Fold:
Amino acid sequence: MDICPGVTEVRPVTSRIYGIRVRRQLISKLVKLPGLHHANPRSDLFCVEIGSMDVSAEAALKKFREIVADAGLGRFFGVPAPGKDAMK
Structure:
């Protein structure tokens, strides 16, 4: 089951780093995005570091969605396009 479109799992890796597992067909779109770490080129797990004030899976997913929206990939992850319905 997807947590949001394109994301299948969110899990803690360390206290401030969370792993975001994405659908396999989306890996190539995310590989070089700044803010996402992809240690293993064959893996579908990307890591995102969150601030120490709000350490949770929800905060990690929110930051991930902001990163993909800034890169113009929001439509793959259920993030509205910029405009009147944009996330704030």
Notes: The chain is about 20% helix and 20% strand.
